[in-house]
C-alpha cells in the first residue's frame, strides 16, 4: 500500500503483468459524505527496462489525451513491452467527472498544486501522491493536455528546459521523437506548482503537450496524440514495436515580447487568422464587437510581434484581460537547447 495523506493505492506496480485499478482519494464533502473517489491507473510490466508514465486529465475539460490513454491500455500487447508503462488517463478525476479545468472539490488547478501537500485539500494530495510515489519510478513522463474550454491550440509539444545539461538534452530529444508540428520551448521559470517543473526537479525527463481544444474532441488532434505517444514509447525502448523508427522532428518556437494579444474590454472577438498562421507585427489580429453599443464600430486589435499563432481563445465572448491570440517566434534546435 502506498499512501500520501488522504490518497492511497494498493495496486501492484512491481510484478510482471497487466493490471488495472484505482488510486483512492478519501474525501468528505456535501456531495461525498464519505467516499473513496477512484482515480484510474493501469500498469503494464514485462521484465527489466525503462519505466514510462503517461498521464492525461490534469484538467478535466481536455479530452484527446484522456481518450488516447484509455484506449492505449487495451491495445499494447504485454509481450511487446520491455520494462514498465504506467497510465493515468484521468489524473484529476474530480475535474474530469465535472468537465472543469479545476477540481470541483476545492477549486484548485492540479497543474499549480505541485509539489503537493498531505493536509491542504484533495488536489494537492493527489499531486503529492504522484510526485512521492510514481515519479521516482520513472525514466520518462509525458503529460497530455489540450486547450480545454477556453483555448484552441495547434498540436504542440511543450518543452520546459531544466538547468541540468544532460536532462535538458534528453527532453529535447523527446520533443524530436514526439514529432508534433510545433514544440514550444521555455526555460524553467517561476510558474508556481506546475507538474513539468516538479518532475524535472526530481531529475525525471519530462514533456507535455497541447492537442486541440475548445472542450471538444478533434479527430485530427486525437490521431496526432496517438502517433506522438507511440513515437515516445518506441524512443524510450519500452515498446519498440510502436511508432516511428527515426525521430520525426519538430519546429521549435518560443515566446516573444508582445506575443499575447489581450482583450482591452469585454465583447465578441472576431479573429482575423486561424491557429497556425504566420503573422507580422502591425497586422490586424481581429476585432472586438461591443456587446452593449450597437452604434459603435468593431474595434481592431493589432499584433505587436511577428511569428506563428500557436493558440487562440475558443469562446467568442471575451473579457478585459482575456488572452485572445498567442504568437511565438521560430528558433533552431540549438537555440532551444540554449534557452535559460
From TrEMBL:
Keyword Cell membrane assigned: no
Pfam families per record: AstE_AspA_cat
Residue span(s) of domain Succinylglutamate desuccinylase/Aspartoacylase catalytic: 49-234
Keywords, comma-separated and alphabetical: Hydrolase, Metal-binding, Zinc
GO function term, MF aspect, one: hydrolase activity, acting on carbon-nitrogen (but not peptide) bonds, in linear amides
Cofactor field: Zn(2+)
Membrane spanning residue stretches: none
InterPro entries, per database record: AstE_AspA_cat, N-alpha-Ac-DABA-like, N-alpha-Ac-DABA_deacetylase
The protein's name in its UniProt record: Succinylglutamate desuccinylase
Amino acid at each position: 500500500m502506498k499512501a500520501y495523506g488522504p490518497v492511497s493505492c494498493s495496486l501492484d506496480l512491481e510484478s510482471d503483468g497487466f493490471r488495472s485499478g484505482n488510486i483512492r482519494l478519501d474525501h468528505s464533502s456535501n456531495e461525498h459524505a464519505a467516499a473513496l473517489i477512484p482515480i484510474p491507473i493501469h500498469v503494464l510490466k514485462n521484465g527489466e527496462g525503462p519505466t514510462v508514465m503517461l498521464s492525461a486529465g490534469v484538467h478535466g475539460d481536455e479530452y484527446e489525451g484522456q481518450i488516447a490513454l484509455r484506449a492505449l491500455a487495451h491495445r499494447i500487447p504485454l509481450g511487446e513491452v520491455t520494462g514498465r508503462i504506467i497510465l493515468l488517463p484521468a489524473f484529476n478525476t474530480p475535474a474530469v467527472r465535472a468537465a472543469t479545468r479545476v477540481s470541483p472539490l476545492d477549486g484548485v488547478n492540479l497543474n499549480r498544486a505541485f509539489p503537493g501537500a498531505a493536509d491542504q485539500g484533495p488536489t494537492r494530495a493527489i499531486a503529492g501522491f504522484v510526485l512521492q510515489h510514481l515519479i521516482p519510478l520513472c525514466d520518462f513522463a509525458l503529460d497530455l493536455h489540450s486547450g480545454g474550454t477556453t483555448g484552441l491550440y495547434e498540436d504542440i509539444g511543450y518543452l520546459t528546459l531544466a538547468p541540468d545539461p544532460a536532462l535538458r538534452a534528453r527532453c529535447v530529444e523527446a520533443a524530436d521523437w514526439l514529432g508534433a508540428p510545433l514544440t514550444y520551448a521555455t526555460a524553467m521559470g517561476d510558474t508556481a506548482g506546475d507538474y513539468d517543473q516538479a518532475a524535472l526537479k526530481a531529475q525525471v525527463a519530462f514533456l507535455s503537450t497541447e492537442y486541440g481544444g475548445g472542450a471538444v474532441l478533434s479527430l485530427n488532434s486525437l490521431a496526432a496524440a496517438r502517433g506522438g505517444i507511440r513515437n515516445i514509447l518506441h524512443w524510450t525502448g519500452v515498446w519498440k514495436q510502436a511508432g516511428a523508427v527515426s525521430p520525426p522532428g519538430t519546429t521549435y518556437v518560443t515566446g516573444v515580447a508582445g506575443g499575447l494579444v489581450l482583450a482591452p474590454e469585454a465583447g465578441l472577438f472576431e479573429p482575423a487568422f486561424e491557429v497556425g498562421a504566420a503573422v507580422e507585427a502591425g497586422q490586424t489580429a481581429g476585432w472586438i464587437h461591443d456587446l452593449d453599443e450597437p452604434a459603435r464600430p468593431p474595434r481592431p486589435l493589432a499584433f505587436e510581434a511577428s511569428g506563428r499563432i500557436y493558440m487562440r481563445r475558443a469562446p467568442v465572448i471575451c473579457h478585459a484581460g482575456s488572452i485572445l491570440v498567442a504568437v511565438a517566434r521560430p528558433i533552431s534546435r540549438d537555440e532551444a537547447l540554449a534557452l535559460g
